[in-house]
């Protein structure tokens, strides 16, 4: 059989990938040749074609891993199944992209294979969404008049949308599909003319003054511009500013009671540091700017409270967009800001201006049915980050909910997982229920962390064998880890069982976050205990 009898697909691991060597070693461990493109016979049966796609997906999962996914899922066992909705959708879309880029088929058999693969991939994308479906409960049109007015203004100014705005239970405002939307459909298209970016700043009267301020970033200048523009009755964006809340209710606005409720968690320090940084930034600018230029920077518009409001606006509503000149800009995008975040979003790949239409498009990565809330990905963000800067905790299991660990990272030699521990500049844990490998030497815990602890206990450690010395070292490693997390659990304190319904919004959020932290820490302790039992069982099998 010649090469013409095969269909070949190029899924290349980029050499610029920061984890290129690690991923390449894992590809080999999985039985793939990184330099050879997978292929399938054109005469393949549907079952053989499915096996081919399964192999492609396993390869694509690894190619599309980000740092956290690689840290936790970077072993052959974990790569057999879906690791996270984000990774699975990225993997499937990278295969779709490869099919679209493959040479145009001249014969019917090859065209048929391409079509069959496309159809199966779309089915698998639908399955990812069905596993993590978020129910949409619309609370009538109450309180959404301003939002509807903004939507009408957008359409008059060139916005194209297949989404409507509604008040959604548990999420405030949300974007709802007006029709059944399929993979690849453009849910929303925003012309550059209504995107709030630095171009508006350059046209303003404050720019000549601000550009002389030492060390001030364009983002900060734009933030100061928006503080004044909010009160400009003649602003082109008046309808947009009118839809914004008086209070964003992010972690940056937590009151004393909520801050106290976070005692014992790392989030307490994160919020305090963020607020301290913003206060320092404010004090460097004001009242100096208002004193020297009271007409351009009226003191009543540039108070600390209004500055914090503007910071919350930009943190929670801005998007990074690549413009046609290749420059990445931080922007506010009217109407698109109504799209809420999900760990299994409908829209993942956005953020680049289409040069042909001079607009920002939001294509669907998975289908969204009529009346369903259409979700966006704000990024691979932890719940602590989402709470601090956006003011909510995501629904479902967030694979990016990690607890960082403070270890001195030594220069270690290569481990059995094909990477040296020094490849990781830091270590972390997450809920062990997310791991698929709870066997001996794994325990549902991240391999790089275990390797680091093994070497710390026994510098001569090289690999895992069922010898007495190795098993005893493992028990000590899990004991060390348990001690760390017992202390963490103690710091978090007991769960408060009082009625939370009467608490303020910030205290409720703080308590919900601590419940999540306790659950993660509890899972680590349970895995350490179960792992120790496994090791003790193996020790009993060894001759005395």
Task: Please describe what this structure looks like.
InterPro entries: Rubisco_LSMT_subst-bd_sf, SET_dom_sf, SETD3_SETD6_MTase. GO terms for molecular function: protein-lysine N-methyltransferase activity. It comes from Erythranthe guttata. Keywords: Methyltransferase, S-adenosyl-L-methionine, Transferase. The chain starts with 5 loop residues before the first strand and ends with a helix. The protein has helices spanning 20-29, 46-63, 67-73, 85-101, 108-131, 145-156, 198-202, 207-210, 218-229, 238-243, 256-261, 266-285, 288-292, 304-317, 383-389, 447-457, 468-492, 505-541; strands at 6-8, 39-41, 160-161, 163-168, 172-177, 186-191, 318-322, 328-332, 340-341, 353-354, 359-363, 375-376, 403-405, 427-429. A hairpin with a 4-residue loop joins strand 10 (353-354) and strand 11. The strands form six sheets. It has a four-stranded antiparallel sheet with strand order 3-6-11-10, with no helix packed on it. Strands 1-2 form a two-stranded antiparallel ribbon. Strands 4-5 form a two-stranded antiparallel ribbon. The protein has three domains: 6-131, no CATH class; 138-247 and 294-381, set domain protein methyltransferase, domain 1, CATH 3.90.1410.10; 402-406 and 423-542, no CATH class. Residues 411-422 have low confidence and may be disordered. With 544 residues, it is α+β, with helices and mostly antiparallel strands.
């Amino acid at each position: 059989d010649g090469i013409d009898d095969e269909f070949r697909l190029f899924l290349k691991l980029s050499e610029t990938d920061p984890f290129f060597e690690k991923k390449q070693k894992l590809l080999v461990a999985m039985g793939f040749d990184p330099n050879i493109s997978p292929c399938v016979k054109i005469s393949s049966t549907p079952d053989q074609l499915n096996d081919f796609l399964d192999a492609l997906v396993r390869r694509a999962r690894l190619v599309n891993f980000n740092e956290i996914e690689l840290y936790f899922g970077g072993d052959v066992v974990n790569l057999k199944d879906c690791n996270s909705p984000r990774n699975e959708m990225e993997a499937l879309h990278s295969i779709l992209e490869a099919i679209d880029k493959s040479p145009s088929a001249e014969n019917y058999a090859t065209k048929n294979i391409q079509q069959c693969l496309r159809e199966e991939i779309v089915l698998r994308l639908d399955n990812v969404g069905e596993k993590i479906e978020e129910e949409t409960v619309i609370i009538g049109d109450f309180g959404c008049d301003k939002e509807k007015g903004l939507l009408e203004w957008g359409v008059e100014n060139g916005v194209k949308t297949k989404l409507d705005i509604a008040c959604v239970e548990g999420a405030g405002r949300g974007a709802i599909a007006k029709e059944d939307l399929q993979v690849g459909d453009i849910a929303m298209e925003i012309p550059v003319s209504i995107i709030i970016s630095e171009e508006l700043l350059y046209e303003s009267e404050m720019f000549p003054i601000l550009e002389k301020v030492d060390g001030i970033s364009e983002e900060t200048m734009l933030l100061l511009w928006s503080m004044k523009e909010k009160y400009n009755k003649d602003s082109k964006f008046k309808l947009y500013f009118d839809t914004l809340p008086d209070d964003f209710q992010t972690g940056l606005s937590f009151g004393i009671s909520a801050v106290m409720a976070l005692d014992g968690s790392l989030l307490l320090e994160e919020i305090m540091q963020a607020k301290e940084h913003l206060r320092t930034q404010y004090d460097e600018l004001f009242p100096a700017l208002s004193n020297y230029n009271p007409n351009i920077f009226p003191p009543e518009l540039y108070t600390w409270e209004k500055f914090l409001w503007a910071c919350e606006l930009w943190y929670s509503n801005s998007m990074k967009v690549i413009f046609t000149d290749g420059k990445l800009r931080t922007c506010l995008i009217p109407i698109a800001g109504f799209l809420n975040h999900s760990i299994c979003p409908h829209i993942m790949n956005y953020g680049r201006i289409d040069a042909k239409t001079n607009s920002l498009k939001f294509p669907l990565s998975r289908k969204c049915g009529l009346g369903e809330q259409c979700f966006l990905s704000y990024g691979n963000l932890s719940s602590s980050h989402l709470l601090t800067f956006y003011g909510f905790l995501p629904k479902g299991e967030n694979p990016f909910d990690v607890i960082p660990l403070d270890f001195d990272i030594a220069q270690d030699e290569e481990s059995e997982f094909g990477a040296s521990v020094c490849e990781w500049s830091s270590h972390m844990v997450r809920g062990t229920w997310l791991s698929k490998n709870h066997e001996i030497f794994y325990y549902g815990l991240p391999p790089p962390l275990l390797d680091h602890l093994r070497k710390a206990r026994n510098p001569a450690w090289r690999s895992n064998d069922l010898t007495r010395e190795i098993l005893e070292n493992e028990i000590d490693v899990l004991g060390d880890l348990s001690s760390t997390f017992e202390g963490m659990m103690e710091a978090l304190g007991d769960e408060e069982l009082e009625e939370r319904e009467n608490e303020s919004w910030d205290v409720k959020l703080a308590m919900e976050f601590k419940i999540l932290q306790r659950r993660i820490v509890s899972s680590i302790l349970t895995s350490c205990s179960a792992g120790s039992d496994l090791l003790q069982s193996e020790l009993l099998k060894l001759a005395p």
